[in-house]
Design a protein that fits this description.
The complex is a heterodimer.
Chain A lengths: L9 E6 L4 E6 H5 L5 H12 L13 E4 L14 E6 L9 E6 L3 H8 L3 E5 L6 E6 L2 E6 L8 H12 L4 E5 L1 H4 L6 E4 L3 E4 L2 H6 L2 E7 L10 H14 L32 E2 L6 E2 L17 H6 L7 E5 L9 E5 L1 H7 L4 E4 L1 H4 L16 H17 L7 H11 L2 H5 L2 H5 L3 H6 L4 H10 L3 H7 L3 H7 L4 H6 L5 E3 L2 E2 L4 H12 L10 H6 L5 H12 L16 H20 L24 H10 L5 H23 L4 H4 L26 H15 L10 H6 L3 H9 L5
Chain B lengths: L1 E2 L10 H19 L4 E2 H10 L3 E2 L7 H11 L5 E5 L5 E5 L5 H11 L2 H15 L4 E2 L12 H12 L7 E5 L5 E5 L5 H17 L2
Classes of the chains: A alpha+beta, B alpha+beta.
Chain lengths: 701, 200
């Protein structure tokens, strides 16, 4: 058996029903699936029957990292969590969540590539992993506590360097809209209740070991420096948001916020972020400020610094200190998160007294983080909040929730944008109290079903951003036209694919983007200017395939798809080109298993195909085009009636999208009529055994 | 003005070489500070270092020769002229032409500065440019100054292509109708100011 670097070499298996733990080798069974989602899909395919439901003991939840986790590879801190998804409606199917923080590295240093949990404990437990010492520990003293208290208690047992992934009351109460969270603010949405259903309160990991990088040290250091040199700011935005001496281009919408005079005002002393020339690799962490990106200039005075995952210089979780929030609401003055987590509280409100980017909005963020990140609530990429607004302002809530319960909420506070309203709402969702709390905690699909509301209404309303199966879009036509639409048809929750959007939003002029696109996807016509979409062509299908495969690759290697791929860079001397081979270079040097970019993409295709096969088996149909790869009506509409292919609209054309799906299936070597992978596609990817099982069930085209 | 030790350009006359090196340093130092170097800046330094004699107010042909010498083998040294034809210098190692052009415009007519930034954004990316960005570095204009400029521009033929659109968040964006039609500009402004945050 060859010896590889990167992988720890062991997978921890945990049966909570019998309270037995054991290990198996990673390489023997999972090398061809890398790690992360690859291991997750493989376990589900091999071991979990298609008719299993999320809260059944037979469902498994797989926490897996990839061979790059815990190495010095930039942006490597991700843990993929794969399971049958509680909010996937009407039938639960396979899906994944991802959390950053310190968990991935700590798990690797403890000596594991994954933890596979099955069964159900007869009373609350938490899993203690201290290197090779694994124990299932009584969690009854922790049950009913929030994530923060749980983390503190377990850290006191395992040590302050331990990484603790815990659920809050939402997960305990089997609220489908729940998370698991580690390292204060790093959550994976949708899986909290699966842990809760197993009476698994938390996993605490302490790893004092190390991992091996197979390649020579000097070569590894050169490669890491190359990768660092090509990093932009958060979401791989490669130009600053204001003109800077070193920058040929700039983009006011960029997440690259650093500039002279913009200070982390709550640091002591305050720190000027400065010009951040991209050649200065020691200043990458100053580039991004997601609090300022979302909340505007008001956030600078509250910013302490950026925080983030192990081995990532981007630091996209902004740490803010807001004394007024502590004084007004009796909460901690410190908060930390990014994107949907940062905006959890703010996104509920349609308006604030001082506008969308004033002090009250900041306070709403603080209250939201204080509550949601402790109760362990999930926003479903802010679908929870969009649904809530619609249900309230359209009068649906009033008619569905009993009069007495409806009156028990301070709706005047809600309408005025008073963040204290969240204290009334969020705990009720986490505790499943009342009809409102119960319904919205189910997730959109089951909420619609419970309240006999039409999914078609959700599919026609562009403001809701709803896509299908109970989940929203995630970087669809607004970001990349037909390519974005294709990507959003493929998963069983929101796509969580950023490969394409990281490129289209990188801030470079369209001519530069087109030049790069020609090199990467074979034609400058793979990309269009924003809101000036042109008809479908084969290069857009290539881009969609590339985006999907790279997402799976990142999720399996433990690279952050919120940052990669790195096909554009901030370097003028490189013509702003990045390196489309970075993933294969890192993998080859870390593991010693030399693979080209094309070979890595084939591995990614294998992993993606397994997801497709799991979905087909779970749905019991091969008619994926008709029954799974659906597109909501709002994609084909424009509120002002603008026609598709005119400037100023994201409206897609039905025939053009039909062509887009044809070209995508062709690019994937799938059957066009059904959208199902063919026998040849499975065989090419080394999944003949999968094809055999599907064939026996009549699920091959 | 003459070099302290009169002579020609070759190494036989070290003061000439020293003057060139000093000029290079002035240009690069200023570029490193995010600024352009003027001829006065260079002359002041040369006089201070005793590498030139005479009154700095003159523009001697020796300076042209010194700068020509400096440029040899230092391809990063660039010259840019302002609206009046006055020369400015920068190092492309430390400053891009884009930024140098912005600084030159900033020294001159603010109406032209605004117009050219807006036109550049409208044609190159293409997108409208937020009015509020002119209040921040490196433009550093006050709101009143910006609005006064826009009022003036509205009545001048040379700027009739500069237009304004306001997003649903109440923020104004400027664009050039030479490159963006009003509807497209409005949609792009809405995306930049509102849409991309609603679609994170």
């Amino acid at each position: 058996m060859p010896s590889f670097g990167g992988w720890a070499g062991k997978i921890l298996r945990v049966d909570l029903s019998t309270r037995r733990t054991w290990t198996e080798g990673t390489i023997e069974r999972y090398q061809d699936y890398l790690g992360g989602t690859g291991i997750g899909y493989k376990v589900l395919w091999d071991e979990v029957p298609g008719d299993t439901r999320p809260f059944d003991p037979a469902n498994k939840i797989i926490f897996a990292v990839g061979p790059l986790a815990g190495t010095g590879a930039p942006c490597n801190g991700r843990t993929a969590i794969t399971t049958l998804w509680p909010t996937c409606w009407p039938k639960p199917l396979v899906a994944t969540g991802h959390m950053g923080g310190q968990f991935a590295a700590e798990l690797k240093y403890a000596g594991y590539d994954a933890i596979v949990v099955e069964g159900k404990a007869d009373s609350p437990v938490w899993l203690s992993i201290a290197d090779q010492r694994v124990e299932i520990v009584d969690a009854r003293p922790l049950w009913g506590q929030g994530i923060r208290r749980t983390t503190i208690e377990i850290s006191q047992m395992l040590g302050p360097e331990a990484a603790v992934a815990a659920i809050g009351q939402a997960g305990e109460n089997l609220v489908p809209m729940s998370v698991v969270m580690n390292s204060y603010s790093h959550s994976a949405g949708g899986v909290g209740a699966v842990m809760g259903s197993k009476n698994l309160k938390a996993i605490g990991v302490r790893g004092t070991g190390s991992l091996r990088v197979a390649g020579p040290k000097e070569e590894w250091e050169r490669l890491v420096k190359l990768h660092l040199s090509m990093l932009g700011a958060n979401n791989q935005h490669v130009v600053p948001d204001s003109p800077q001496p070193w920058a040929e281009y700039y983009d006011p919408g960029s997440r690259w916020k650093a500039a002279p005079g913009r200070k982390w005002g709550a640091a002591a002393p305050a720190i000027d972020t400065g010009t951040c020339d991209p050649h200065n690799l020691n200043r990458i962490a100053y580039r991004s400020n997601n609090a300022a990106f979302y909340l505007g200039d008001v956030a600078w005075k509250y910013t302490v610094r950026g925080n983030g995952c192990t081995g990532c210089p981007i630091r996209c979780h902004t740490m803010i200190k807001v004394p007024s929030a502590a004084a007004k609401y009796g909460i901690s003055e410190m908060g930390q998160n990014t994107c949907g987590g940062l905006n959890f509280g703010r996104s509920f409100f349609r308006t604030f007294p001082d506008g969308p980017r004033g002090e009250t909005a900041v306070e709403a963020c603080m209250v939201g983080m204080h509550l949601a990140d402790d109760l362990g609530l999930w926003c479903n990429y802010s679908q929870l909040q969009r649904d809530f607004q619609k249900l309230y302002y359209d009068g649906i809530m009033r008619s569905q929730v009993g009069a007495e319960e409806f009156k028990s909420y301070s709706w005047n506070k809600y309408e005025k944008g008073d963040p204290s309203f969240l204290f009334e709402l969020l705990p009720r969702i986490a505790m499943k109290q009342g009809e409102l709390g119960t319904a919205v905690g189910l997730g959109t699909g089951y909420m619609l079903q419970r309240w006999s509301l039409s999914e078609e209404g959700w599919k026609r309303d562009a403001n809701l951003q709803y896509w299908k199966l109970g989940h929203p879009k995630h970087h669809a036509n607004e970001d990349a036209g037909q390519c974005g639409v294709i990507i959003n048809t493929q998963y069983n929750r929101d796509a969580q694919c950023h490969s394409h959007a990281n490129f289209t939003r990188n801030g470079l002029p369209i001519a530069v983007q087109k030049r790069l696109a020609a090199e990467i996807w074979g034609s400058p016509d793979a990309v269009d200017p924003v809101k000036a979409y042109t008809p479908m062509n084969p290069s857009k299908a290539r881009m969609a395939k590339w985006a999907l495969l790279r997402k799976e690759l990142h999720d399996s290697l433990s690279l952050c798809n919120w940052m990669g791929p790195w096909v554009a860079s901030p370097l003028k001397e490189r013509g702003y080109k990045g390196d489309d081979s970075i993933e294969s270079l890192l993998y080859s040097l870390v593991t010693g298993d030399r693979k080209s970019r094309e070979e890595m993409d084939l591995t990614a295709e294998r992993i993606f195909l397994l997801h497709r096969a799991l979905t087909i088996r779970g749905m019991g149909t091969r008619e994926m085009r008709a029954r799974h790869d659906s597109i909501p009506e709002w994609v084909f509409e424009d509120p002002e009636g603008k026609a598709a292919f005119t400037k100023g609209t994201n409206r897609m054309d039905r025939d053009d999208i039909a062509l887009a799906m044809d070209l995508f299936y062709e690019e994937m070597s799938w059957d066009k009529a059904t959208g199902a992978p063919t026998l040849a596609a499975y065989q090419r990817a080394g999944l003949a055994h999968v094809a055999r099982e599907l064939g026996e069930k009549g699920l091959l085209p | 003005m003459t070099p302290v030790q009169d002579g020609g350009r070759d190494g036989e006359y070290p003061q000439w070489e020293a003057a060139s090196q000093a000029a290079i340093q002035v240009i690069r130092n200023r570029s490193g500070q995010g600024q352009l170097a003027t001829e006065e800046d260079i002359l002041d330094e040369l006089v201070a270092l005793n590498l030139l004699e005479g009154t700095p107010g003159d523009m001697p042909s020796a300076l042209t020769e010194i700068l020509s010498t400096a440029a040899e083998g230092n391809g990063d040294l660039k010259e840019i002229q302002d609206q009046e034809g006055r020369k400015r210098y920068y190092s492309s190692q430390l400053m891009t032409e884009t930024y140098a052009r912005l600084l030159v415009r900033k020294e001159g007519d603010p109406l032209r500065l605004i117009a050219e930034i807006v036109r550049e954004n409208s044609s190159l990316y293409p997108r409208p440019f937020p009015l509020g960005a002119f209040e921040r570095s490196p433009f550093d204009m006050t709101r009143d100054e910006i609005l006064q400029c826009l009022n003036q521009m509205a009545s001048l033929e040379a700027y009739r292509d500069i237009a304004r659109t306001t997003t649903s968040a109440g923020n104004a964006f400027l664009y050039s109708t030479s490159y963006l039609d009003p509807d497209y500009a409005a949609t792009l402004a809405e995306w930049i100011d509102v849409g991309q945050y609603d679609n994170p």
